[in-house]
Amino acid sequence: MEDGVILQEKLSPQRFWQLTSLGAICFVGLWTAAALAGLTSPQFLPTPWAVLDRFVTLWSEPFAGAVLHEHVLASMRRFFLGFGFAVLVGLPLGLLMAWFQPIDRLITPLFETIRFVAPIAWIPFAALWFGTGIGGPVLIIFMGAFPPVLINTYRGAKFVDKRYLEAASTLGASHWRNISQVLLPAALPSIVSGLRISAGLGWQSLVGAELIVASSGVGYLMVRGQASISTATVMSGMIAIGMIGLILDILIRRLQQVVEARRGL
User: CB-based burial of residue 263 (10 Å sphere; 0-12 exposed, 13-18 middle, 19+ buried)?
Assistant: First the structure.
């Protein structure tokens, strides 16, 4: 992955977009050829233009109780709640674990056990506890997004140059000022990097949750599309998921670039 990033940095923007466009054209071309070859029914493998037509139609005609943008808004509301809770808990907890060794030793064993449980494994509990209400998806998103926030915050704060901390303590800085004015600024690049990973995992967790424990959202739309044997509807949902995920990644990547530029990285 790192090698791929280095290669992209060496390409000119024009060349990069040329290769990106070529890859997209090849994919659509293969998809079109497979659909027109008649290897399977159009109901199960529609053409790209049939999916595009269905995608546009879903924005104006309700399906599964709502039009597409209403399903998208329902998914985004759940995502930002779960992701927001993950940041609100993971960021301060990571800083506290890095500064106070007793808290680190108290939290680490439990956290190391929980973080290896896949977010999808929480779906049965979410269904039992919350049914199809908003709490279930939010819990699953939180369990997907929380570990990267905590880990990157902890690691970023843990590897802060000790000289800065010693200088602050020598000047009479309290624990709170050390955490808020030394650890947090120094760990910020690592924290933002963790947010990017966290957002991706949280968004993936949301879609998995909506497939089972939701009565609205893009994942729910896809389930209903499958039930009505409408592959174009399912693929329209996948397109919406991919587009939103890409936008989230671009926004956080831009934030990461701003933070790194200000710190001279």
Answer: exposed
Residues 6+ apart with CB under 8 A from 101: none
* Best CA proximity match to 126, nearest among 114, 117, 135, 113: 135
Tell me if 74 sits within 8 A of 217, measured CB to CB: yes
The number of beta carbons lying within 10 Å of the beta carbon of residue 215 is 12
Q: In the chain, where are the structural domains located?
A: 46-262
Contact 87, 149 (CB under 8 A): yes
pTM, two decimal places: 0.82
Those residues whose C-beta lies under 8 Å from the C-beta of residue 90, and which sit 6 or more positions away, are 145, 146, 147, 148, 149, 150, 153, 198
pLDDT tens readout for residues 231-254: 999 999 999 999 998 898 889 888
Residue type, 24: A
Contact 245, 180 (CB under 8 A): no
Q: Please determine, looking at this structure, whether the domain spanning 46-262 carries the CATH number 1.10.1040.10.
A: no
Residue 247 and residue 262 in contact, taking contact as beta carbons nearer than 8 Å: no
